[in-house]
What we know:
By secondary structure, this protein is α/β, with parallel strands linked by helices. It has helices at about 15-30, 55-75, 85-90, 90-95, 110-115, 160-165, 175-185, 210-220, 240-245, 265-270, 275-290, 310-320, 340, 350-370, and strands at about 5-10, 35, 45-50, 80-85, 105, 145, 150, 170, 190-195, 225-230, 250-255, 295-300, 325-330, 380-385, 390-395, 405-410, 420-430, 435. It is globular.
Amino acid sequence: MNTKTIDIITLGCSKNLVDSETLMARLEALGYKVEHDPEHPRGHTVVINTCGFIGDAKEESINTILQCCERKARGLVGRIYVMGCLSQRYLKTLGHELPEVDGIYGKFDWGRIIDDLNLNLNPNDNPSAQTLPLRHITTPRHYAYLKISEGCNRHCAYCAIPIMTGRHHSRPMDDIIAEVEWLVGQGVKELQVIAQELTYYGLDIYKKRCIAELVERMAHVKGVKWIRLHYAYPHQFPMDLLDVMRRNPNVCRYLDIALQHINSHVLTNMRRHVDSTQTYQLITQIRKAVPGIHLRTTLMVGFPGEGDREFEELIEFTRWARFERMGAFAYSHEDGTYAARHYRDTIPPAVKQARLDRLMALQQEISAQVQAEKVGQTLKVMIDRKEGQYYVGRTEFDSPEVDPEVLIPAAERRLRCGCFYKVRITHSDQFDLYGDLPPCHTDGAERRSVSDIRL
C-alpha cells in the first residue's frame, strides 16, 4: 500500500476547495504525493472535505465517506480522514457512527491531520517548509478562488452555515493582497473573490466595511486581469463598491447577490432585514450605477409563510428584475436553524417542486433573451479549455462552472487557454453563446508573457 500518496476529495463550495488546496500544499512540502479527487483511489490515505449545507449536500458527503469505508474494508484504501462543514456540525455523531474513519476534524482544525499523520511542519525540522507555498491551485492555472473571510453574522432563519462556521472573521487586508501577488506570480489572471458575506468584510477588524477599499487595492496589483465578486448581501449594501467596479475595467461587471425572496412578510420570516421596497430600490441603484452589470442571485420557494399570493409576487419580481443569472431551491428544515425551531414546514413537497419548476422555467426564458441580445456583439473572452470540436471560454459576465460559456469552433485556428480573445457572437441558445474570431486581424489575443509558457 502506498502510504506516501494522499487523495483529497473536496465536496461542496469553493471555500472548501481553498482549504483543500492549502492542505495539499502543506503535505506536498513534506514530500507527499497529493491527488485531488482521482476517479479510482487505491491503496492510500484519503481525506474527504465535506459539505453540510443542505440535505442533498449532507447525503453526498455521507455517501462518499461510506464508499471509502467500503474500499478500506476491501483493502483498497488505507487511512480515512474527514474534515469540513459536515464534520464540524456533526462531530460526535460521525465519530460514533463511523468507527472505520481514522480521524474526524471540523471546519477550522483540519491542520491537525498533519500531526495525526506523524508529520511536523516546524520550519526548523523541515527545510522544505521554509518555502511552503500558500496553496496548490487545482483550478485551471489562469484563475483561482480567493477567500477573504470566514463565518457569518447574519443568522438568516433557514441557514445552518453560522452554526458550522461561527461569527464573521475578516482576513487582514495586507495578507490578502500578498496572496493576490503570489497568485499572479503563479500565472493566475482572474480572481474569484469569495466569502460567506463579502460586503461585511472589515467590520470586525477595521470597524467599517472595507470591501470597496480591498477590491480597489486588488485591481491595482499588476497582472490582475479580472476580479469577480461572489456572495454579497442586500442589507446595508456598500454602494462605494459600485464606484470601484465602474472605475476599474479589471473589476468585472458581475455581482453575485443572494436575495432569496421579494415578499416583505416572507423576508421578515427569513430574518433577512430587508423588505420588498428596499430590494427593488437596490436593484435599480445597482443597474444605474454600473450599466451593463450582470446580476446573479439565488431565490427560495416554499419557505414557511409563502402562499400562492407571495409566490406570484416572487414570479413578478423575477420577471421585472430580469436577472442575467439565477439559481433557486426549495426550502427544507435544517437542524439547529431558527426556522426549524420556530416554524412548521407545512407546504407539501409537490407544491414546492411545482413552484420551483415554474420559477426556473421563467428564468430559462429570461436567460435565453439575455443571451440572444449579445448576438452580433464582439466580446472579450477568456479561453478555459478545449472540449471536442470547440474551445470553451467565458466573458466577464460568467463565473466558471456555474454560468453560461462561449463556444468557438476549434477548426478555425489554434487558441491558447488562459488568454483573452475578441470573439464575435454569432448565435445563442438558452444558456450558451457561440462565436468566431473576427478575420480582420491575427487573433485578438493578448501578448504572451513568460507566465504563459509551461516548461
